[in-house]
Amino acid sequence: MGDAFTEHRALLFTIAYEMLGSATDAEDVLQESYLRWSAVDPAAVEHPRAYLVRVVTRQALNHLRSVKARREEYVGAWLPEPIRTAPGVSEDAILAESVSMAMMLVLETLNPTERAVFLLHDVFGYTHGEIAASVGKTEVTVRQIAHRARRHVHARRRRFEPDSAAGREIVQRFLLASATGDVQALMDLLAPDVVVISDGGGKVVAARHPITGRDEVARFALGVSRTGAASAPFEHVTCNGMPAARFLADGELDWLLAFEIHDGRITGLYGMRNPDKLHRADAVRPLDRGGRQPWKP
């Protein structure tokens, strides 16, 4: 029994993480699911992977509903708990987009059932009938939910390019321009509708609200540079399929800045400073969509 769970663990973690936006909560869901799995008679499970996906989905739905109030009371802007992803994630465009900060924020605007249905169908490739068994709805209802959720997501999704050498060069140029106060270089790198979202969780200094527009974001970047943060040593990493910079203070991870890039311009900057969300951000997480072909518009 344990071997089947281990075999599909990457898929199960990916589902739970995309459902919850938190690696910590995803691990809790996997632990709960494993305990349920361990109590099952092996002879009663014909398709272990399908069974495990149902269990994890149900546990994630329960967990998501329980944390709703906690998220509503969150201090400042909320971002998903960042995860470091292997380079191979960037080669799967659907997986990379689905774990990107921008998409995870869009998923937060869905209700729990809509989120589960959209992810299982459009990202992981499960049929409406299979999803119905996981979320406790009829197939007809799931089909309606999928249509509604897809329309909602597509109206709000942002263009996104996975981590690449070109993207890392843009990150390097942005940080250099910020550190040296090169306003024109910053303006050339930023898209007109660029947005900055910083998550301090009320525990450290961070912008409480999103900052939008090229001029405002350039001013913000220059202000941060005057604190010395932007000129601190950093390491290029892949975070949620995106190019990112990892900054240390006294040998500890102090903040993580992920870059959303499209057509050679920075369209989004996602800064994680909340120490509660950074404590697991150094471990590279294996992600897996399970090999199914998702729905395509």
From TrEMBL:
The keyword Transcription applies. Keywords: Sigma factor, Transcription, Transcription regulation. The keyword Ribosomal protein does not apply. Residues 101-152 form the RNA polymerase sigma factor 70 region 4 type domain. Residues 5-67 form the RNA polymerase sigma-70 region domain. Belongs to the sigma-70 factor family. ECF subfamily. NCBIfam families: PRK09636.1, sigma70-ECF, SigX4. Interacts transiently with the RNA polymerase catalytic core formed by RpoA, RpoB, RpoC and RpoZ (2 alpha, 1 beta, 1 beta' and 1 omega subunit) to form the RNA polymerase holoenzyme that can initiate transcription. This is Sigma factor. It comes from Streptomyces hiroshimensis.
